[in-house]
Amino acid sequence: MIINHPLLGPRDASEFTYLGDASLINRPDWQSDTAAAEFHDYLYLRDNPAGTHRELWFHEQGDRSWLVVTRDTLTHEILATELARDVARKTGRGK
Question: Most buried among 18, 46, 67, 68, using CB within 10 Å?
Fold first, then answer.
């Protein structure tokens, strides 16, 4: 599988480490009154969709960047790649 890195171009998937669902970017507020329950759900509850899914990948053998990869889990076709920092910024997180 080839992942089209937004900065470096096409790279083999073996250079990356898969972390999981891209919703991990949306970390709960640790100061919330319901933080324990929110962190439980954040850490242990995951969807396992068949079809289009947004995933978090780490470029471990390259520039060590985090990517959000939109991939069809049935065909392994990659539909989009974005830097995770850009995704976080769009949602008001990060600098």
Answer: 67
CB atoms within 10 A of CB 5: 20
Cα-Cα-Cα-Cα dihedral of 52, 62, 15, 6, to 10°?
30
pLDDT digit string, tens, across residues 6-18: 999 999 999 999 9
Neighbours of 64 (CB within 10 A): 8
Q: 18 in helix, strand or coil?
A: strand
Stretch 42-67: mean pLDDT, rounded?
93
pLDDT of residue 36 exceeding 90: yes
Which residue(s) pair with 67 in the sheet? 57, 83
